[in-house]
Amino acid sequence: MDYRFLELKVEDNIGTLALARKESLNALSLEFAAEITGAVKELREIDEVRAIILKSNAQIFCAGLDLKDFVSAGLDGTPKGSLDFPEKLHELFDCCNVLEECPKPIIAAVHGKCVGGGLDIIAACDIRLCTEDATFSLREAGIGLVADMGILQRLPLIIGQGFTREMAYTARFFSAKEVARMGMVNGICVNREALMDEAKKLAALISENAPLAVQQTKKVLNYSRSATVEDGMSMAMQKNMVLLFSQDVREAMAAFMEKRKPHFKGR
Questions:
Q1: Count of beta carbons in the 10 Å neighbourhood of residue 48
Q2: Residue 80 half-sphere exposure, CB side, CA atoms within 13 Å?
Q3: pLDDT tens digit string along 234-256?
Q4: What CA–CA distance (Å, rounded) separates 238 from 197?
Q5: How many Cα atoms occupy the beta-carbon half-sphere of 142 within 13 Å?
Q6: Structural fold of domain 6-207
Q7: Residue closest to 36 by CA, chosen among 1, 6, 63
Q8: Whole-angstrom Cα distance, residue 57 to residue 8?
């Protein structure tokens, strides 16, 4: 597919999805959000892709919602307009949901400011890395709104209720060191070049493992956030009852016996 606001690349089993609405600092419009959804769906269907890196080609990661686009969506304050709210803005919600639901692990590589909707996006990813100059703001309370793209549901599962409430209630900017202390990011890199090097290294490590096993592990992890330990374990065992008959498991056993590195094919 051709994208107006994105740059897409697949190389060495890694898909790189670059946010490139540069003139607007990646402010999320409905069209932009729809493109993100389409690109992630495209990447999930490419067998070669085993991990995805989400990055920004703009000066910052994301400036949050495009408020002009938001107003032009026809939310006129009437009862009908209010009832139509979820449907008219579904692209915003979809672009986060599709990241979370994508079976392939997604690494968010963040530099500069990550505001509002940008924070929603990275919270829906599996792993987050950032540069030393990165700052993060759950901004909605500062503009009179409640965050509704999933951040209030996802972020507490990453950093806990206390830190989430501090970010949500204050709407201030938090430094890379602060969010690292919270557990939001897995690592801090000195600059954008080092950030991409680290993201690629991590994606490559993921890509070396059995693709089906990694993808099903993500499904079990997502399911287990709202399930009992027993139910989560049951789902994992069901996945393994299928995976035990995969070519990748046979390859892993053969590689162990032959004292070599396995070469997985996702079958």
A1: 14
A2: 1
A3: 989 989 889 888 888 887 888 88
A4: 36
A5: 14
A6: 2-enoyl-CoA Hydratase; Chain A, domain 1 (3.90.226)
A7: 6
A8: 11
